[in-house]
Design goal:
Largest sheet: 4 strands, antiparallel
CATH architecture: 2-Layer Sandwich
CATH superfamily: Transcriptional coactivator/pterin dehydratase
CATH class: Alpha Beta
Distance between the termini: 36 Å
Number of domains: 1
Radius of gyration: 15 Å
Number of strands: 4
Order of helices and strands: HEEHEEH
Oligomer: single chain
Number of helices: 3
Helix content: 25-40%
Structural class: alpha+beta
Amino acid sequence: MSDALRVLHEDEIRSRLADGLPHWRLEAGCLVRDFHTGGWKGTLMVAGVVGHLAEAAWHHPELELCWDRAQVRLCTHSPHGITVRDFVLARKIEDVVQWQPAREGGGLEGTPNDDERFRYIHYD
């Protein structure tokens, strides 16, 4: 079994969460993250991003969608636990969903986050 499929122990999981994924939590044997959105449009956008990344990674989370929230649950089913694969996908999901172009100072201005008419996700 590759190191990416090694089931991580709880202390290692908590340490990895604290070091780089503070908005994710350990819950019932999975890594869990709630993304709070501005409504259904934002929820569907988060689901689309997660779906694309998961399919590209060939590693598929569970999604729970509500009007203003998308919950992502990651665990690896074949070895029955949380593995490095789950952390790699969680990091990529976090980076893409939380991306705010305006903070990079490049050519993209980004969605006006201070105007409720346009804000589709609540950034952390």
